[in-house]
Amino acid sequence: MDPLFDRINVRDLLSGHDLSDPSTPLSAPDLRLIISRLESHSLHIKSKVRSYLLSHREDFASLFSQCNDAVFKTNEIFDNVSGILSLISDRPIDVEIRKLVDEIGRTTKEASEKREMLGLLKIIVGIYERLEGARSAFSDGRLRFAAEEVKELKKALRIGDEEEGEPIVYGLLRKQWADLFDEMQDLFSKFMENAVRFEQDSRTIRVKYKLCVDKMDGIELHTVMEAMDVAGILDYSLAKAADLIIKHAITPAVSYGSPAMFAEDVNQGSEGISETVLKILPSQDCKIVDVDGDAIYARVIQVIKFIFKHICFENGSWIRSFGRLTWPRISDIIISKFLSKVVPEDASKLVDFQKIVKCTSEFEFSLKEMMFISASDGKDYRLSSFSENVEVHFAFRKKTEILGKARNLLLQCDFSVPQDYTSKGPLLKNDGMAINSSNQVVDLIFSSERCVVSKAASQLMELVHQTLQDVCLSSARVALEFYHAVRDAILLYEAVIPVKLERQLDGINQVAILMYNDCLFLSQEILGLAFEYRSDFPDSIKEHAVFADMAPRFHLMAEEILQRQIQIVIFNLREAIDGADGFQNTHQMQQFESAKFSIDQAVFILEKVHIIWEPLLRPSTYKRSMCMVLESVFSRITKDILLLDDLAAEETLQLQRLIHMMLDNLSSLLKSLISAFDSNAKIVRYAFKINHVGVGKWRTYELWFYNTRVERLHQSNIRGLNVEKRMHMAYRKCEGHDYSTKQSNGTIFYATGAFEGIYVN
């Protein structure tokens, strides 16, 4: 049938016609031909259809029968639906169905929740019953079963993994489990206390195999160990036993010089071994010192083997747990009581220490075989690490000794001046040669002068030089530690002494001057260290060894101390001069006595400074510092006098009397300064003359200058000017000349600065 439904192309019916041009119109014959051929084709199609229907008659009959049945059933369904719709329209059954469905859903949900609650309740009851069963098992002595139950219940209750929103009962169960776990820990601790005991009278460690705790009798130690292992509390329960063994067995075994000996004893009972005993015996010969460590390590091995055999029952896991618990402390004891004490004190003995290194390695190998320490964890090989790094420990020990010695001598030094050294015996002769043989009198390497230093500074530099000599002879690692020890020892002075002498630095005393000399001495010595030792240092630290960076710190400290002393002296002098009330009305007895008392105070302070400074300070420093002090006090006195208005004749005489008195009292101090200025010194010297010209109290101010080169006295008169201008003009007239003091028809009043003398007539 498919060919019948193909498309018919009309142009195909005109086979003889030229159809190349679609736009060509068809003629009437063509159209008639087409109609004829279409009719023929239509008849052919009808014939085909008829023959097809006749050949498939039964099929079409069956198809029509089915269609008839379908129509009938459709009508029947229509009638049924119509009946249902009529019923629904009469009564709302859909509402009842919906209510029924909702009720069924609620009932199903409630039943499901009740089943879940019932399941949870069964779980809770089961956990509770297991907790009570575990507690009962502990009471009955079934320790392993109870420990297993506690371990499993920990997982069931998710201890340590709690979540929010859990039932409250879970928290209660966890609390019960925690209480049970604490009871279990306490019980096992009591078992171990009962199992391992130390008897002080007999000095014996006793291990019992049949234990009795809280009415539980006959519990075996092995059972207790198994239960503790299952519960995961082996470390906790063995802690006290470990402390006992370390204190009473390991520590005496490692004691260097007076070690203990050990003897084992096994007590047999009717049912087998009842207990074992480790007796701690004093050494028969306390004079024997184990320098190689063989005996010490053997005693420690003996104790650990006793633990391995009689407490851990040769169980590798148990002895490993015991080792984790005790080995860090045991190794610390061995290092502190043995290895650190046999570290060589001399670099030449480092070779002999290799025997100890070998013994230490064998000792740790034995512990590894017993599984007391781990075979893979490098942290457990602390003893080998310590002994193999002996050079570092040797250097560290020496460094500690050096710093300890430096600290002690700094703290113990009292900063006293040598007994044979007095103010009447100066440090240097006029020709610069020392007359004192004390080791506190030192040469300054960058100066031709000498000075007195404290024992602390002198001994500190001796220690520094000794250490640097060792640096030159040591290996690179040791030399580096010694180098840092030298720097730290020097810096200890800066850290310790200023704090120790803080109170003394606030007054006028010898301590401050000694500290100044110390800092000056240390700064120059530090600068010389590199020149003296660098060429002999090991090559690895030649380029890194630096000392010069510390020298400026001490030089600056020295100057700060000296300037602080000078300022303290100047402050005290000014306070003393303040009491003179500007030297006004000295012709009145009360005012004269007040001025005289102030002058006496100033003289006392200056003499005290003279007595302290001259013997201790270098001559150049003494002269410079004393001139600063004198400049301050005499400038103040000169200024007060120049600020006075007209002077009465009696007042002038009283001032002259005060000045004479002061100069007489300072004669020794002034003599000590005369040597400070040679004939060519470029120091301005001048005198101030006060003349009284009779009635009216008119005064003439005269400045006298003495030129040492031409030995001639110059005079300059200044009238009617204020003090500032007079002082300024006097200074300008002094510029460019070298002057020294000349005494003529009166007394020279020495000072420094703008006015170095007052000539009073």
From TrEMBL:
Ranges of residues in domain Centromere/kinetochore protein zw10 middle: 174-410
Transport among keywords: no
Domain (ZW10 C-terminal helical) ranges: 598-678
Signal peptide: none
Gene3D superfamilies: 1.10.357.150
UniProt GO BP: cell division; endoplasmic reticulum to Golgi vesicle-mediated transport; mitotic spindle assembly checkpoint signaling
Centromere/kinetochore protein zw10 C-terminal domain mapped to chain residues: 446-574
Span of domain Centromere/kinetochore protein zw10 N-terminal: 38-131
Cellular location(s): Chromosome, Centromere, Kinetochore; Cytoplasm
Record has Cell division as a keyword: yes
CC annotations in GO: cytoplasm; nucleus; RZZ complex
This protein's UniProt keywords: Cell cycle, Cell division, Centromere, Chromosome, Cytoplasm, Kinetochore, Mitosis
Family: Belongs to the ZW10 family.
Protein's recorded name: Centromere/kinetochore protein zw10-like protein
Organism the protein comes from: Gossypium anomalum
